[in-house]
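Changelog note: in this version the structure field was regenerated for every chain. One regenerated record is shown below for reference.
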Amino acid sequence: MPRKKPVKFIIDLNLLFPRSSLPPNFIDLFRGYVRNVSFPQNITESLILEDLNFTTWCYPNSTGGLQCQCEDQFAWSCDKCGLYGACSNVTSQTCECIKGLPPGGEFCEPITSISSCPTTTPAPMDFDIVLELHIPTSSVAPDFSDVLRHIVRNVSLNQIITESLTLKNLTFTTWCYPNSTGGQQCQCEDQFAWSCDKCEVYGACSDVISPICGCIKGLPSTGEFCKLITNVASCPTTTPGM
């Protein structure tokens, strides 16, 4: 009888070990064992082991779940990464660690067999930062507000602060200084104003002769500063009784 042609097939082997019985360096020991197996390896008269790859290892994470990590040259498919979530930010085009073990028995696959995961660039986000500076009066020159205005107006924009943070605009809106009675006066810069309710609560520094309030007798404790005039409603005017 003619000899049957040998059949090659792949077996995925899932080994489960109690965590308490493993030394801290178990993964390194297991890698060393797999790398040092000589091939081919005769298992039985009709079964020969031609290759052995350690592809995936899972371990408990800090929340009691699992993290399943791929070995070098192996990766999870993009759909598995999307379904289970990456263990950390995916900085390459492959996903090498997911938060769980797929119940269907899948393991990490050779990188050469996996399509690159699409990369998405997050849309830039604009946000406002309110900066409050406290400077002792004794250390401030009489023309300090003019000096600060000059600095702010001459800052070059866009100013790169970090790789992911860019300063697009810088505006000097409000400055406060001691008044003659020991309190504070908080003055708005050009094109800025206090809202009418703040003017009523703290009082205007002088008679308000325009529809806007440009100076109040105090700094609101809740952190508000002068706003753009275009964002402030005109204060109601009262007509003296005849």
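Spot check on this record: The helical segments are 26-35, 78-84, 144-153, 196-202. The mean pLDDT is 80.
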